[in-house]
Specification:
The chain is α/β, with parallel strands linked by helices. The protein has 13 helices and nine strands. It is elongated. It holds the Pfam family Methyltransf_12.
Length: 325
């Protein structure tokens, strides 16, 4: 979502929206809404202004008006950069759809990349890479593993997970949907290779060559686990490990979309999805992953293993078919 997305091409409309932002930052949402309305009279097809209008109406408690703004936004935003569909779904005003909202997630993290680590680690107490790495090391010790031949870090971001894995992995690959995130992590020289791709598409294009796959705070943007695990398991060698985190809920739904536009997964449904995918569950724990507006976010930490007997015919007889021990 580039800065250009926030210009209507009409200087007066732009100035009114800039002033509306200032008022909203001070908590005067009513005045901000009025100014956004004036701007939209001048530039009625300005998607970014409709997005702001929906946000300010929501914060002012005008949910019906917010939904109306997001419906207009959805019609204007063909690429889904502003996440209108997700915002409607989070307010039970439409379906979330299946899979990742690629346009929205890519735009979100392209915009977020320069301040990602400062915001997530410094301000929100983000702990997922540390927590997952501890579980991985404990399972390595229990299984008698000394390292991994090849690891795949899904949604690698700025390399927070990769930095912890590096010394125990011979070949470390990173995949992320955001080019800006990849640019940030490329400067650190953590990964042997980096790929900009949507994770399910990337996994579907691979053979069974990884003995570790990680996804730290990534699947919270993917919705249902089934399609992800269906793509992930064939990418693992027999005996390979997968470690990931999810945001959790205790309700009856398998998964639901929170107002944060992140998915929360049911604890029982997550266990079921792992079993259906043919994975052996090694660790399954709940923990506080981070804080959001001062409130703790509880999540699930998973380490699972692909049974060693599930080696594909393509890997039979190849060197390094199992996890390094």
């Amino acid at each position: 979502m580039s800065k250009a997305s926030f210009s209507s091409g009409d200087l007066i409309a732009d100035r009114r929206v800039d002033y509306a932002r200032m008022l909203a930052e001070g908590g005067d949402y009513s005045a901000a809404i009025d100014l956004i309305g004036q701007a939209l009279e001048l530039a009625p097809d300005w998607a970014a202004a409709w997005d702001l209008l929906g946000s300010y109406e929501e914060k002012a408690g005008n949910v019906a008006a917010a939904i109306a703004a997001w419906r207009r936004l959805e019609a204007l935003d063909d690429e889904g950069l502003f996440g209108a569909r997700l915002k409607l779904a989070a307010h039970k005003a439409g379906p979330a759809g299946d899979g990742t909202a690629v346009g929205y997630v890519e735009a979100l993290f392209d915009q977020y990349a320069p301040k990602f680590e400062d915001a997530l680690v410094g301000k929100l107490g983000y702990r997922v890479p540390e927590l997952l790495d501890t579980l991985i090391q404990e399972e390595m010790a229990r299984l008698g593993l000394t390292g991994f031949d090849k690891a795949l870090d899904l949604g690698c971001g700025t390399g927070l997970m990769g930095a912890r894995l590096r010394e125990r992995v011979r070949v470390l690959e990173g995949i992320d949907i955001s080019a800006a995130m990849i640019a940030e992590t490329a400067r650190k020289n953590i990964y042997d290779s980096l790929q900009k791709a949507e994770l399910v598409a990337s996994l579907n294009a691979r053979r069974a060559d990884a003995d570790l796959v990680t996804a730290a705070d990534v699947l919270i943007y993917c919705g249902a686990l089934g399609p992800v695990l269906t793509a992930l398991v064939p990418a693992l060698r027999g005996g390979g490990l997968v470690a990931f985190s999810l945001e959790a809920h205790d309700g009856d739904e398998d998964v639901f979309l929170r107002p944060s536009l992140r998915y929360a997964h049911g604890i029982a449904a997550t266990r079921d999805a792992l079993v259906v995918a043919g994975l052996d569950i090694l660790r399954f724990e709940t923990a506080i992953l981070r804080f959001d507006r001062g409130a703790p976010i509880t999540g699930i930490l998973v380490v699972a293993r692909k049974p060693a007997l599930e080696l594909s015919a393509a890997n039979d007889g190849e060197d390094g078919g199992d996890v390094a021990a």
